[in-house]
Amino acid sequence: MRTPDSATATHCPYCALQCGMNLRPLPGGAGVVVEERADFPVNRGALCGKGRTAPAVLSSRVRLTGPLVRTHATGRLEPATWEEALDAVAEGLARTGRTHGPDAVGVFGGGGLTNEKAYALGKFARVALRTSQIDYNGRFCMSSAAAAHQRAFGLDRGLPFPLEDVPRTGCVILVGSNPAETMPPALRYFTELQANGGTLIVVDPRRTRTADQADLHLAPRPGTDLALALGLLHLVVAEGRTDEEFIAGRTTGWPQARAAAMAHWPELVERITGVPVPKLREAVALFCDPASAMVLTARGPEQQSKGTDTVGAWINLCLATGRAGRPLSGYGCLTGQGNGQGGREHGQKADQLPGYRKLTDPAARAHVAEVWGVDPESLPGPGRSAYELLDALGTEVKALLLMGSNPVVSAPRAAHVEERIRSLDFLAVADVVLSETAALADVVLPVTQWAEETGTTTSLEGRVLLRRRALTPPPGVRTDLDVLHDLATRLGTGKGFPTDPEEVFEELRRASAGGPADYSGISYARIEAENGVFWPCPDEDHAGTPRLFLDRFATEDGRARFAPVTHREAGEVPDAEYPLLLTTGRVVAQYQSGAQTRRVDELNAAAPGPFVELHPRLATRIGAVEGAPLAVVSRRGRAVAPARITDTIRADTVFMPFHWPGEGRANTLTNPALDPVSRMPEFKVCAVRVEPA
Ligand code: SF4
Questions:
Q1: Is the ipTM beyond the 0.90 threshold?
Q2: Statement to judge: residues 401 and 470 lie in one domain
Q3: Rounded-to-integer distance, Cα 426 and Cα 96, Å
Q4: In principle, which of 38, 97, 441, 494 could form an S-S bond with 427, CB 3.0–4.6 Å?
Q5: 311 C-alpha to center of ligand 1: Å?
């Protein structure tokens, strides 16, 4: 959409808040600058430093502007033509498939890819490559919340209500979420909540900037959020605060969930979590006294080897108190990546087809196969989840096409993943810069960036948005859709891979029709006219669905399902050799693996490198000095970063941000213990020891 003064209205390339912004062209074709876009209701013009500086990556001198191919002669990546590079990729993938079978070829996508790209990538894997081996880095983001959502409500949309409901509820429990650092413009919803007389409870082992603002901060030992939720539910029952009418009329499974909670009496929960019983009681009162309340989770409870059950425990709390499926109440997940929501709906997840359909459902296979013009029998079945796929590289999976992801920095047990990637027969990476993963590739394909292409994303609210092309890309780059079309053509199936994003979206609409994430009533024109449309939206006369579950849940019987979850420890607990816990997270000036934000001077000045946060008591015990290098050692490796001593963290826990490669790479340490349902790795807790380096 062009604004009257010729700026282009679009959205930020980074997180799932998908802030609206205007891009104004600079004179002489010298790029664009970001300007406030007050008409988009979610951020009302506010941006964090990442969004404000996003154009810097467009003009960065380190962005890729031509393909690179690794030559036999030098062993180095050398400039090549697009024809040479695409031929090499098609040949590398086809040769592997011919020699070892289609499942020896893997595809790895990203939660930052637009809906059109995610859709085309899933189709490319299953139709052009005939491989089941596709997954994406969103598996590392919110898959546990998605699985718990599906299990409880029969449908997964991160927030089943718009953010505008948050200030009008009575209480929000924010679990393992730090929007002050991860999505600062969202903080105003919680500030407004408090200004309206509502209360904010933050659950986090660290007293983050968000926790500082809370009315109540609960700081459990990492990995014990599930026990905490069970303890709160125990008190809800003991104090007679359950909503029996809601439980009887709109849920199933309460007796089992109730019995599980009653086995977690408050003193036991205090011993497990470290949260004192009086604070548990205070939280129950704050949550139950008002007429409405919400629980919002983020990566803290989700990135655990019991992430699905942990989120399930918080959903149980909502259900038992009648705080779900009602106005201004409910459970929601604050999704992280820019298109983390849409990225999981349209087919780049190992077990899913477009429209959030199950790959194992015969009716879903038949519907999507018809849209794709292929035999349903030809569609592969489910493949490996993200970490399992990365772990299989070099053995069962011998060639990989990777788009929009940097697992050398962002995957758990990253040194092992890096070794697996290095052992591949063939690696092709499409990216905008030479990320740490792209640097290992046989072929690197330089692709356009967010402001140089058009496409849709689906925000954490389930609001489908349109990013508009605002400037002409450099001559040496192509879009991801171009790349998939050109590769499919070389593999003999190019006809089904259009390069026009709107054409892809029209096909996506048909493929999603009738599915859980039904986009069939959404068009580019509607998104522009209405500033976004909430799915499901089954036809063009449908207004979209900002609020889900008000009449019934999306399960077969319309009732929400309690999960009979019980506490269990994390994959690793402290012992004599590794006596501390490590938790990882983000800082405000960097995003994910830092592939883009580490290329922005202003952001680097604000957050130049990793650090190890530790409590003064722990620092004294081990002789750590502020700013001096500290080694953090887990069963998987060793990372070194300067000490940052602060009393805002538990004394039994250290924290590292995960945005950097090299010796300070936090994910060298993290544990790939997987949740049995979501296959989420346990990024948020592992056992470590810390010593001066
Ligand atoms: Fe971009 Fe997220 Fe920052 Fe908004 S909060 S400007 S979407 S990174």
A1: yes
A2: yes
A3: 8
A4: 441
A5: 25
